[in-house]
Amino acid sequence: MSQLQDMDTTNRFYATVKSTKRITPENSEEEVKDLILELEEGTDLHLDAGQSVGVLVPGPHAFGNQEHLRLYTVANATNGDKKINLCVKRCNYIDEFSGERYNGVASNYLCDLKPGAKIELSGPYGSPFPIPEEKTADIIMVGLGTGIAPFRAFIKNLYKKHKKWDGKIRLFYGQKTGVDMLYMNDEKDDFTLYYDKETFKAFLAVSPQPYLNKPIDFESAFKQNKEEIWELMLKPDTHVFVSGLEPILTAFDETFSEIAGSAEKWQRRKAELKAGGRWVELIY
Q: Would you say 115 and 17 are in contact if contact means Cβ atoms under 8 Å apart?
């Protein structure tokens, strides 16, 4: 996995903030913003679902660096237009040595921006989630937190390109509480646009005890649909996309080892999916 300091930032461009809107309810502990950026005139950039742009936060910063780089996965595919959609969670962290609380540099910078602000970007980075060539292919998507952003872009792009998709599309999405479900709450519910599609279903997984920081209950969401999901996993044309923080992989492997009957059986099937180019991870 590449380190941020090794990223090539020579391809730079500017964008203006057209709008910024909180998409978690006001009573939620977590603040997540939906930002729409308009690329500067003359910028030639194409972004697909699963790709990222670098946000260059001007300094100087704490360690003397003149700019701070952070990657954000786009929540839309540009398809030739000049707007980029980002899903940004305001972050902070506790220094494990001093115990002091610090604000995340890039997330707070972006969340505090007002319409009209101009920012510098770089990229694009990463491989996109590919739309399968066959419309009969089944697709399983698993997203944690802001990891849902590329799936929002993917689904919009898929149904724009193919008005009817014959394969099954299953989205499993997790967040600490139901009101925090990004793009799936009263503030913003993009996925209702696709609930009338015969092949699309979304399953929500929340923490059973969010205020005790219990893990997202993906296990129950999968097990309630285990017959269908395992049947899809075994099909030769199923694609699996996983997006989110690193712990999602451990939870995924543990759950599917149980559904498959053993860890060995699951790892064998996972290896087959990877070898066939039908397993794509976007892990932060």
A: yes
